[in-house]
Predict the structure.
Amino acid sequence: MKKHFENIWEEAEEQSFKSNTSILATIEELKKLLDSYYKYVVNSSQIDSSLLFKLKAKKLGEILFLIANISKLESQNVYACLVNIIQANKIKEIEENEEDIY
């Protein structure tokens, strides 16, 4: 049976929370992972495309795992956070389109 994203996210929160790391240590690790991902993007022409895809997928999974840890440590509702930013972006897009009309 296939798991829903919400269940996978909650499992990631629980697993990552067991590491008992501080929020600052988690953010520092996240910065390292983002820098590593950035290097994959910058050097993409020097890496075989199928290998690059696998490397980036693994790194993105690690990044999301740490973000799940942050959401658990900070007691953030990730769904609500995403809904809010999506709504804010839609409003911004509408406002920008209105500016183009006038």
Helices lie at 5-17, 23-42, 49-73, 78-101. The chain has a mean pLDDT of 93.
